Amino acid sequence: xxxxxxxxxxxxxxxxxxxxxxxxxxxxxxxxxxxxxxxxxxxxxxxxxxxxxxxxxxxxxxxxxxxxxxxxxxxxxxxxxxxxxxxxxxxxxxxxxxxxxxxxxxxxxxxxxxxxxxxxxxxxxxxxxxxxxxxxxxxxxxxxxxxxxxxxxxxxxxxxxxxxxxxxxxxxxxxxxxxxxxxxxxxxxxxxxxxxxxxxxxxxxxxxxxxxxxxxxxxxxxxxxxxxxxxxxxxxxxxxxxxxxxxxxxxxxxxxxxxxxxxxxxxxxxxxxxxxxxxxxxxxxxxxxxxxxxxxxxxxxxxxxxxxxxxxxxxxxxx
Length: 319
What we know:
Layout: H1 20-46, H2 51-73, H3 85-109, H4 112-119, H5 122-133, H6 141-157, H7 167-190, H8 199-217, H9 243-265, H10 271-278, H11 280-293, H12 299-316
């Protein structure tokens, strides 16, 4: 998923002094950890762990860790109001479970950088939703954002060669982008207003809903445990790493710690600043996938990726 653009309030509080340099540093570390998670997850998928099971493993383990964190730091947030439940269910199942699962399906069939570029079109969809769905004003730049994203994606897909991307993988990534739109919109509504919930406990409850969903759809007693010890077919630098170590990274550093760093950075950055540095994630992910997995994009595809990210940045600033 486009993890680094986590949902949170855009205010840093009146008494806390902003230090943008610290904010940029923290967010860049978070984006790097998120980006590395793409390569780590791909190795696990190539070891034979089904994408839905990998998603189940990630959300369930992350929920248990966040449950401990919230219990120790904000016990009152463990209470869930009945009025919140429908929103939490939508946020957890569609915004979290589906985003992660579809992203895993995508990276199993596409280069990690390409998958992230497609998923990163979500902010453009959000801007269009606010313009046409909610009838809220947006800047005219959203139209340039849409045009640039379409041109950039056409360059990445190399449409003049008959669309070289895997159709199922591309469709899954676009599905992940739509699910990410739900994550953004529902999450934004949940951290605003009189009954607002803090971002950490909101994420915990979202992961709880996602974990419960997967437990019902695919019960734990049917989990294919032998796949956790299977050898990956990847020939990259991560192939020799034990799956247990890769899973630990995916959950702890690739999810919980990276999310915490992104939250911490928002005490020093405005939303526009965070969205700008967040554009580094696909760039870093593409570089890491090249180094660790041997995946590479052509110069024209790299240029197309830059065009896509320019469009996304315009969309982020259009609201």
